[in-house]
Write a structure and sequence with these properties.
Elements lengths: L8 H12 L4 H12 L2 H13 L3 H14 L3 H16 L12 E6 L16 E2 H4 L8 H7 L9 E6 L3 E3 L4 E2 L16 H10 L1 E2 L4 E2 L5 E5 L2 H10 L6 E4 H27 L3 E2 L13 E7 L7 E5 L2 H10 L7 H10 L4 H11 E7 L4 H13 L6
Parallel strand pairs: 1-3, 1-8, 8-9
Antiparallel strand pairs: 2-5, 3-4, 6-7, 10-13, 11-12, 11-13
Length: about 375
């Protein structure tokens, strides 16, 4: 690294934070990258481009970061960031599928039971036809009801391991219950989890937080073992279905409320007037004008007082937002913090009452992950 002997890890991270709050963050970070040739700076640049929806540039810098990082754990962070861009997982768009991957057991009954079928290879979703005692048909039916429309799912095949629905397979008669048939090993399944990238957009299985297994106890156990090295939870189909029936109405309501907030036009803080803000409870989101994702999400019993008197005209003692901006700017100068907020920020807000207000705030923060709500 050109600047490795001149800039410590702490110094580089401090300068990255300063660049993120600069009037032109990308130009600032590009200059810093030219000076330091540091992987963390390249990673930050990838994040800035991703936030602006420029995925090609984001991938370019994430790939550069992977090359520049000397440690494997940081190389992996860069790879995960890059696959996240391809998978569309860290934008402000709400994904119905969330972080759940559905895994369906293969079926003994296959398309080749029809004597007229003479194709050697058939896509898995066509090859497995299921039987009365197999859960496959229930899952397929649920794809239209309980399972989100854009959910990702895989088969678990006793011969092939984890395969995508479009993956071509040949006829076989291999089962986990009979070792003599040569089923895929625990070790190979675990290696598929940690080493392979899936789908056209190259997403790693380790990126998912939860796995729902539509299959019998043998398949559930195999999936649990395969993902034992990750922090993901693995649950069975019945547990998921019960959970969905209980939570679905509430989740839908929260998503609808959040969608309503995100549909409200942004207001430039430079032009914000007290008369535009209600003296009533509500939720709000603060944005930097050149980013798609919010910097900060909050709620208040009085929107006008919180936004104008605390955040815009207040001080670091009365406003968490001001305190965190000041920390990133490296200053406690209230005038400078106010100047940055009024010059760089936009806001949207929506009146609503408790108790839904506090629940929606936590829901929004968990999905949108605002940078200053850490």
């Amino acid at each position: 690294m050109k600047g490795a002997d001149r800039a410590t890890w702490s110094e580089i991270n401090t300068r990255i934070k300063e660049c993120r709050l600069a009037s032109d963050p990308i130009r600032c970070l590009e200059d810093l990258l030219s000076e330091t040739n540091d992987g963390m700076v390249a990673l930050a640049l990838g994040g800035e481009y991703e936030a602006r929806g420029k995925t090609a540039e984001a991938c370019q810098y994430y790939k550069m970061a992977e090359t520049l990082f000397p440690l494997e754990e940081w190389k992996e962070k860069a790879r995960v960031a890059r696959s996240g861009v391809n998978g569309g997982r860290r934008t402000g768009v709400l994904r119905e599928a969330g972080d759940t991957l559905f895994i369906v057991q293969c079926t003994k009954s296959k398309i080749w039971t029809d004597p007229s079928e003479n194709r050697e290879f058939v896509p898995a979703k066509e090859a497995y036809i299921g039987g009365e005692d197999e859960p496959y048909a229930e899952f397929v039916d649920s794809l239209k009801k309980q399972v989100p429309k854009d959910a990702r799912w895989l088969y678990l095949s006793a011969k092939y391991g984890f395969i995508e629905p479009d993956h071509p397979i040949a006829n076989y008669n291999v089962t986990f219950s009979d070792p003599a048939t040569g089923p895929i090993s625990y070790e190979t399944l675990a290696n598929q989890v940690t080493s392979q990238w899936r789908w056209k957009d190259q997403v790693r299985l380790t990126m998912f937080a939860r796995f729902v297994v539509c299959g019998g106890p043998v398949y559930l156990n195999r999936v649990k073992c395969a993902f034992s090295s990750t922090q993901a939870s693995v649950i069975g189909w019945e547990e998921y279905r019960s959970e969905s029936e209980q939570l679905a109405p509430r989740i839908r309501e929260l998503r609808n409320r959040l969608a309503s907030l995100l549909a409200i036009p942004l207001v430039d803080i430079r032009n914000l007037q007290r008369g535009q803000l209600p003296n009533s409870p509500g939720i709000y989101a603060v944005y930097r004008r050149d980013l798609l994702d919010p910097l900060y999400v909050g709620r208040s019993e009085n929107l006008a007082r919180r936004i104008l008197d605390n955040h815009i005209r207040g001080n670091v003692e009365s406003s968490v937002l001001r305190k965190k901006i000041g920390r990133q700017l490296g200053t406690q100068d209230e005038d400078r913090i106010t100047e940055w907020i009024t010059g760089q920020c936009l806001i949207r807000f929506m009146p609503m009452e408790e108790p839904a207000l506090s629940v929606l705030e936590h829901f929004a923060i968990s999905l949108l992950k605002p940078a200053l709500n850490d």
